[in-house]
Amino acid sequence: MTENKINLLSMKIYVADDDQLNLKILKRNFENNGFTEVHQYLSGKELLEAIEKEVPDLILLDIIMPDMDGYEVLEKVKDTPAWHHIPVIMITGVSGPDELDALQMSFEKGAMDYITKPYRQLELILRVKSALTLERQRKELQNALEKVKKLENLLPICSYCKKIRNDKDYWEDVEVYISEHTDTMFSHSICPDCYELHVKPQLLKSIEENKD
User: Fold this and answer.
1) Structure pTM?
2) What is the count of structural domains for the chain?
3) Is residue 65 helix, strand or coil?
4) Which tens digits make up the pLDDT trace of 146-169?
5) Is 110 left (phi over 0), alpha (psi -120 to 50) or beta?
6) Do the beta carbons of residue 105 and residue 71 sit within 8 Å?
7) N- to C-terminal Cα distance for the chain?
8) Domain identity same for 69 and 83
9) What is the CATH number for 105?
């Protein structure tokens, strides 16, 4: 088993369905395929409460549920800035002429995939793995961008007094700057005060010595 596969199988999945039998079947299917972080909820409200505590890597969402249907839950997820990136797969028993409407509405509201009951277990697992792979790639890209951003945060620091030149071109004490910023790296420069106090006298002295 490769490291990538272990990471994929340990990603967090939330499932909402008001039918306990469906949840039981889903859980067994996931466990048989090696998934270890599958959390189940009997309503959309319970699912949203769980997301507020910890954001999952994938949501499987039944459309037809009492109190709060899948569309309402999907809208809430996609309208919340901290959650809108979560991939959502809609699962429904809607069939016949209404199925096309359910499919269209699901994608219009932000779902990434759609599965109709009764579904084949292999199909579900493959779709879930595909969604998790994309989410893992998104996270890896986000981490890479954050590292690049940190590398761009090189700051001029005076070689003598250790003051830092901030983004407004003012020199301020390291302690002040550090209290307002994190995850930064220092480069070195010389502030005007230290130039006058240290560098300029040394230059003048050197010039005088060379005259002699």
Assistant:
1) 0.66
2) 2
3) coil
4) 766 655 566 677 777 777 776 677
5) left
6) yes
7) 77
8) yes
9) 3.40.50.2300
